Amino acid sequence: MSDEPPRTRVLDTILASKKAEIAALHAAPPPRATRAPSGGVFEALRRPEGGALRLLAEVKLRSPSAGALSTSLRPPARARRYAEAGATMISVLVDGPFFGGSYDDLAACRDALDEAFGAARPKLLCKEFILDPIQLAMAAARGADAALLIARLTSADELARLADAARALGLEPFVEVATEEELEAAERARARVLGVNARDLDTLAMDHARAERVLARADRAAARVHLSGLASADDVARISQGPADAALVGEALMRQDDPGPLLRVMVARAALR
Q1: HSE (CB half, 13 Å, CA atoms) of 205?
Q2: What positions does the domain Indole-3-glycerol phosphate synthase occupy (predicted)?
Q3: What gap in Å lies between CA 273 and CA 263, rounded to an integer?
Q4: Four-CA torsion 149, 188, 207, 129, nearest 10 degrees
Q5: What is the DSSP code string of 86-118?
Q6: How many other C-beta atoms can be found within 10 angstroms of the C-beta atom of residue 215?
Q7: Nearest-angstrom CA–CA distance, 240 and 236
């Protein structure tokens, strides 16, 4: 793998913003940890033989590809609805400029889930464009159990360093890949949770066939997660027939003022093989 991964125009804009945010985080007092990661992310996402596809539900107020999404429920209320409907994990976007999120949203979701479900709550994924360990420290301090690491944003060596830094904080590295080359980097980083993005970050188009090919090549000992583009219960049923252990549903749920009914149907279809 080359030391400098390919960039896209959208990513260049996001990463420039992110580097400024990272500088501000380093200039501020270090984050004070008030919530500890709970562990068990890999075990929660791993699909038992003959078992149901696990579903991750996303809290995302907007995105560059979709624009504004539903704001009828604040993030903690939406996270609670996801949990009530059977989500195994909840992904919380913390990027502000492009996705409308914040680390405060992550903390509020963790507090709401702890209050309602205690130790039985779904796991929490901090979804961010992570380039620096200070962002991992923020994720851990605000209640995440796992942190997203996007393989294409860094060199393979830097990905491995970030994964080690996440583990040192008690976070599970959730490594997102889109190609077989990125998959190799993730496996070198000893990632136990592998997310395969069906969205082409160059064009923002969906390519489920490519995602399924990469998923099939992934280490079967890992928890393999299909990311992006699932719009219906039929989509979930289709993915449940493949090699994935879990799948993330984002915009389809975020377009619902009440996501509970749709997610319940998706959970039911995820159990069909």
Answers
A1: 5
A2: 11-259
A3: 18
A4: 10
A5: T-SEEEEE--STTT---HHHHHHHHHHHHHHHG
A6: 23
A7: 6
Q: Hey, is 139 helix, strand or coil?
A: helix
Q: Note whether 59 and 168 are within 8 A (CB).
A: no
State CA 46 to chain mean position distance: 15
- For 68-90, the DSSP string reads E---SS-HHHHHHHHHHHT-SEE
Q: Which residues of 116-128 are buried (b: 16+ CB within 10 A; e: fewer)?
A: eeeeebbbbbbbb
Domains of the chain, earliest start first: 52-270 (3.20.20.70)
CA distance 36 to 140: 7
Identity at 270, one-letter amino acid code: A
Number of neighbours of residue 43 by Cβ within 10 angstroms: 11
| Cα–Cα distance list, 236 to 76, 88, 105, 271, 273 (Å) | 24, 14, 27, 10, 11
Give, for 195, the enclosing helix (H) or strand (E).
strand 193-197
Question: Residue 97: what are its φ and ψ, rounded to 5°?
Answer: -60, -35
Q: For residue 45, give the amino acid letter.
A: L
pLDDT in tens, 135-165: 999 999 999 999 999 999 999 999 999 999 9
Q: What is the pTM of this model?
A: 0.94
Spans of the chain, pLDDT less than 50: 1-7
